[in-house]
Each structure stands twice: as C-alpha cells, then as structure tokens.
Amino acid sequence: MSEKIDTSYLDLDTKDETFLDSTEMVLNMGPQHPSTHGVLRVILKLDGEKVLGTECIIGYLHRGVEKIGENRTYTMFNPYVDRMDYVAAVSNGLGYCETVEKLLSVEAPARAQYIRVILTELCRISSHQVWLGTHALDIGALTPLFYAFRDREEILKIFEKYCGARLTTHAFRIGGCIYETYDGFEQDVKKFCTFFLPKLDEYEELLTTNRIWVTRTKGVGILNPEDCIALGVTGPVLRASGVKWDLRKAQPYESYKDFDFEIPTGVNGDTYDRYLVRVAEMRQSVRILQQAIEAIPTGPIMAKVPKVIKPPVGEVYHSIEAPKGELGYFIVSDGSTQPYRVRVRPPSFVNLQALDKMVRGLLVADVVAVIGTLDIVLGEVDR
Amino acid sequence: MPEETKGPDSVLPPPEGAKAPAETASPSNPPATPSAGTEAAKAAPVAESKPAEAAKPAAADKPVVPAAPKAAAPAAAKPPAAPAKPAGPVPEPWDSELVTRLRQQYGSGIEESSRYLGQTYLTVDQTILLEILRRMRDDEGFDYCVDITAVHYPKREQQFDMVYVLYSFPKNERTRVKTRIKDGEHVPSAVSIWETANWLEREVFDMFGIVFDGHPGLKRILLPDEWKGHPLRKDYDILLQDREWVQTNLGIESGQ
Description:
The structure holds 2 protein chains of 2 kinds. By secondary structure, chain A is an alpha+beta fold. Chain A has helices at about 10-20, 65-70, 75-80, 90-105, 110-140, 145-165, 185-205, 210-215, 225-230, 235-240, 245-250, 270-295, 345-350, 355-360, 365-375, 380, and strands spanning about 25-30, 40-45, 50-55, 170-175, 175, 315-320, 325-335, 340-345. Chain A has one domain (about 55-380): Cytochrome-c3 Hydrogenase, chain B. Helices cover about 50% and strands about 15% of the residues of chain A. In chain A, the strands form 3 sheets. In chain A, strands 1-2-3 form a 3-stranded antiparallel sheet. Chain B has helices at about 10, 40-55, 95-105, 130-140, 195-210, 240-250, and strands spanning about 90-95, 110-115, 120-125, 145-150, 160-170, 175-180, 185-190, 210-215. In chain B, strand 4 (about 145-150) and strand 5 form a beta hairpin. Classes of the chains: A alpha+beta, B alpha/beta. At the A-B interface, helix 2, helix 4, helix 9, strand 6 and strand 7 of A face helix 2, strand 4 and helix 5 of B.
C-alpha cells in the first residue's frame, strides 16, 4: 500500500514549467498549404489557439507583369493580363481593353459591349463558383466543391466554343471583340441560365442553413464599413459590410446602364454575410445575362482602331467591378507603341491587407475561413 | 488574326531613346519609327502631326498634345488624303469649387489642376502633399484611397511622379493627386490617413526605391528582402544582375 510510485520518468519538475508556458508562439502557415489558395504564407502569432497578430509574406508568384507591360506593345500585353486573376481572366481583359480604349478615345460598338457584358458576367459566376467550392472545402464541406466545379464546366464550355480557350481566354481586343458569337451562342447562354438557377438553390440547400456552416461563419472575421473604406477593401467584402457600392452602378461602363439589377448587401460584415452576398450576386448576374441575351443588338463588333496602337501622350485611370472588387488600370502613354507605365490596381492585393484586422482575437481555424472569404487569387496579389 | 500587328513596330521594342518620356524628349524630335513599308505609310499621319506639337509653346512641363477636336482617335486608320489629322485631346484646366478653395489656401503650392479625358488631377508641391491628402479626406469627402503608385521619368530633374488615386463615396467622384520628387527624396507616408497606404507604399518602395517617412514597417513586399535594385525604375538592368549572379554562384560567364 505504501509502495511509492516511481514518477521520475515523468520529469514533472521541469515539464511543469514548459507546460504552463504562456509566451507567444509563432506559427508558420504556408506557403504550401491548401487553405491558402496558392502560395500565400501567413506568420501567425498565437496565444494558445488565439491569434494575436498575423504577417503576410507574399510575392511567391511575382512575375513583374507591370514591367512586362512596359516592354510590350499595347496589343501584345493584352493576353498577359489574363494571367493575373486567372479564375476571372475575362474581367482582367475587359479592364485593360477599356482603359486603352479610353486613352484612344474609342468606344466599342454596341454589339461588342453586349458580348463583353455577357462573357464578363459568366466569368463572374465562374469565379464565384471557384470561391464557393474552395471556401466550403476549407471549412470542411466537400460536396459544394464538386457541385460548383461541375456547373462551372458549362460556363467554360461556352468560353471554349466562343474563343477556343477555357481559362485564360483573351476574349476581347482593344476596340471591341475579335470573334463574332458562334451559332447557338444565345441558346447556350439561355440554357445555362435556366440550368443554373436551380443549381444555386442546391448550393444554398447545402450551406445556408447548415448548422456547421453557420457556426463556422457567423460572427467570424467581422469588418465594419469604416474599416473597409480605410483599408480600401472593395467588392463583395465591402458590400457585405453594408456599403451599397458597385462600380457597375456607381460609374457604369460598357452597357451596364441598360440592365436592371440590384446590388446585394449584407448587414453584419461577417463571413456568413459575405457568403450570402456572393450567392445573391450570382443570381443578379443571371438576371443581367437574361436581359443581355434578349437585347443583344446587331452590328459591328470592332470599333475603328489603328492597326498599330499609338495612344496620344497622356495618362488615364480606369477601373471595373471585377468579381473580387475594384480592378483598376493606370496607363501612362508617351505616344509610342508601348505603354510608358502600366499600373494594375489589384483588388486581391488590397483586400488581403484586411486579413490582419479580421483575424485578430479569433482561432487558428478561423484564419482558414477568413482567407477563404476574402476570395484572393495569388496570381493577382503578386502579379 | 487580323488585328494583330505584323509590322516591325510590334516585334522589336523601339530603342531606349524612343521610349523617353514625352516631357523631356523634345516634341520636335518625334521617336523614329523603326517601321518600314506599309506600316510606315500607315503610321505617317501620326508622325506628321508631331511637329505641330513643337510649334505650340509648350505649357511649362506638362505632356502637351496637339490641340484638336475631340473625336480624333483612329487617326492612323484613315487614308492620308484626309485633312490634317489631330493626334488627341489636350489636358484642359480644371476649375471647380474644390480647386478654388485649395488655391486660395495654398496658392502656388497647387502647381496644376487639369482635366484630361474627363479625369481630373491635381499636381501639388511635395511639401504640402500630406496636408492636401488629409484635407481631401476630411473636408472634401475623398474618403477612399484607391491606389498609390509612381512613374519614373529618368530624364527629368524631378525624376518621380507620385500618384494618389482618390475616390469619394459621397460624391461618386474620382480624382488624382500627384507630386513630383527628386531621386532619393523622401515622401511623407499616408498610412496615418488611410490604412490601405501601408501595402501600397511598400510596393512603391519595393519597385521604385522611394522611401516613405513615418511608415510603420517599410520593407520589400513582392520581392525577396535580399533583392538588389528596384525593377520599375527605367534604369533597372536585369541582365547585369543575371551576369553577376551567374559569376558569383556558378563561377562562369553568363551566356545572356
């Protein structure tokens, strides 16, 4: 009974000290981590599970797109912009072509503008589908990924039929579009719209009231409108905080003023609201598609632009509402065939800066949810 | 693909001189177009309009383009027989209550206020930059700093243009505030005004080597810390660095 238990192997005296260690721990996450959506490295400062601060290390995908732009002609640089936000290549091309058109004081013909809107809205849906699938996967829901990618295929098929490429499409040219729509384009888009709306309900059925999904996203990563504006955050992240601002409405470009659609906004600015906003945005995109395909005018698809593009000396900033937020181009022309300076204002880069503010005080697992909800594409962050 | 340019213009980048900024390169000396044959014939109207630019008394130091009617863009596409072809719109003075207010207070500190292609911009003296930016946010409603970037003009005395793109949510209006600085000069950081300036300024530092005073953590953002040089400067030479790297790491001459 009085036999003494040998506990020397437990080494309790020293273990206790380390066990109750309350110093800050630094944990490295990424760059090779599936939930960072590419090659993002986040250094987390932790107190147990609680995040005290983060530091993002980016630049792993830096290709010097802006420098490349200075060494290519305006026409040659066009395909490069597709490689920035590669899940929304069409939007990138639209922004670039519009900016150069502005420099040239050219406007794309009405038919080209409609084709552009249709493809850009399809692209917005496909970008949001990638976001939905991967974001849900990060949080542990496997099925939405398969659903989203299965349905995205229909969009990629339309892209492929239209211009031969599925991802980096290079669909638009400075001055309009290069390709006329193929036979059956209208039917394909209409078919997609009727096919896609019930699929959206399916996604929502899986997630919107799913208890795990709601617990993981409600109240997580809250951004209030003031912080959003101070941090320059745009796109669905800004709208989920209750700021009703969309460049398609605020400063309409292309033919967006012709369409009737709404800007979905959130209330709480948390991850759950951002999910609702993006899903609602997909519905609005379908609305735009349905209107555009009915009203698509006939006529030329290319404005009169010189073969060698030489914009007059000057500089211009133009931005569009990309799926991730405000995508801007600042181009300085010195009157030669190459841009003197191309600056890209990437929405992902600016939005990622908000990560630190959003995750402070949350748990490690929430960092994954917040990175997902920001919807970043590292190709665009690093350029 | 019909719209792809086949001329030598698009294949060979023009010599370094031809890419010089418009301000410094005398407009009377238009960049020699290396094109020949049909391309030259098409480019002719554009080139011809250049001397007209020289005749104009160049308004101080701004990019001056020949004065012309607005709808002028596709100049080169038309046959040369057409009447004298204007090359593009000119920046026109921008007058508004905002500009008047600022001019009243800062006088010559506001160097220029113009409108080009419907977009407005202010060029201000570097010493009052931060004051102007703060005022734009607090009093004029430009609450959202869209972008901060720089442009390098190596032939100018004040080599860099700092460009701040601002947007006002209440007014739904965009404007740009610009300032010119010399190489090596510091710029006050705008982080105290907009948090978003943090990364944007780090990127400008990374790409141009412009130092921001008062920035909370000014270090490289896209390139590795040990990187040499600042790539978006016009005098950046990647080949030199490549040769150096090959020599030190491989001990051979680079084949580039």
